[in-house]
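Hello Y.,

Per our agreement to keep a running log of every chain we model this quarter, I'm adding this entry. I've kept the format consistent with earlier entries: sequence first, then predicted structure.
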Amino acid sequence: MTSYPTRRAFLGSVALGVGSALLQTGCATDAAAARDLRQVVGGRVLRPGDGEYDVAARPWNMSVAQQPAAVVELADSADAAAVVRYARDTAMTVTVQPNGHGASGNADSNTILVRTNRLNQIHIDPHLRRARIGAGTAWGELLGALQRHDLLATAGSTPAVNVIGYTLGGGLSWFSRKYGWTADHVLAIDIIDHDGAPHRITRNSDADLFWALRGGGGDFALVTAIELELTPAPTLYGGRLVWSINQARPVLDAYRLVTSRAPDELTVWYQLLQFPGRPPMVAIDATHLGAPDQAAQLLRPFDQIAGRISDTRRVLALDQLGSITAEPTKPSSTRSHAELLTHLDDGDTEILIEPPAPLFNVQLRQLGGALATRTDSATEPPTEEYLLTLSAVADAGPRTEDRIRRYRDALHPQLSGRVPFTFLSPGDSTTRAFSTDTLTKLREIKRRNDPRNIFRSNFPVGI
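Predicted structure for the entry above:
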């Protein structure tokens, strides 16, 4: 077994004892609660007025406002337990955001915002093909570790996203058409429950909670680690092809052809790009699990389109996966919207070949394959063929909303009204991500496992 240690953890039983005594006093105000938290946990605690509070409270999407009562950077899982006990005894809520991807703006003045970045342990057992991953681990860290063992996990498109947050929301991977949702590869989940007690949750120990945590989000407990099943890594081939927007029509036609007959090993995305100071472009991003010559044959329709500006397709190491789309790795202010498309029609796709401004990105992700198979997790298998995402700079003004509305109106016949959980945007409800039956079951499990409503995910299932 290979171990990749986290930063030094330092909260012991003495501090926990002090914390328990403090909890008996019962804080009356948020400010007092934040001050007392410093006595309860070993990690850093910041409250409004502290010099670094504004930066610490800021989510990945900087356009989302958050003003929590305190920000706690956990030193270890004992800190996690102490924070939950404190929230329980002071009638506060706990929101976990490793770095704030997916923040929705509900971390209010009664919320303790928890950062888990120090809990970044990775333990890999190459013989059992399993990895135990701490709650602060980013995909880039995990992929680098897996690369050394020729093992594969169903990662997303950017190395900056947190593994556990991504997985709790289901986990839509480049490789999901072949291997399904990342949540379906979870073997065990380490949690702190609503009383501050640690538990290891498996299919056998608590089937309902295990089901809910795999795709239902972080509304049920504070997760400190997960154990993932891994797969032997095949050859990974992928990259990006780029043309001027003038070639968008033949590129989109080729995209529809390629995706209509693609095996599950192949995943292809269509993108309209508008970078600052650059002319609009159309791009194809692709990954293939298998021999490069097979991938080249499957992608041949794109090679027949003239005027290609660039082509980065090549055999990739697993830890180079993020280079395909080269998504930003630093926080920014964005406005995003997502929709699931049942199909693409000839008559309704003109908007998908137009320059996207004021949006900087319009993306179609190919779905299908193993994603559409019902599993024993809370993820809703999409029967839709594509996922559409629209992205703009947050302060672009009313033109952005008008443009998003135009896309929705033009593509209305193909919109199902649903969206994967981790693609919800601020203002969205979980009713967009889950069927009535699934949401009813999630709410029942929430009531049973968090009767005081201590845990609040970015998009709560509600009670």
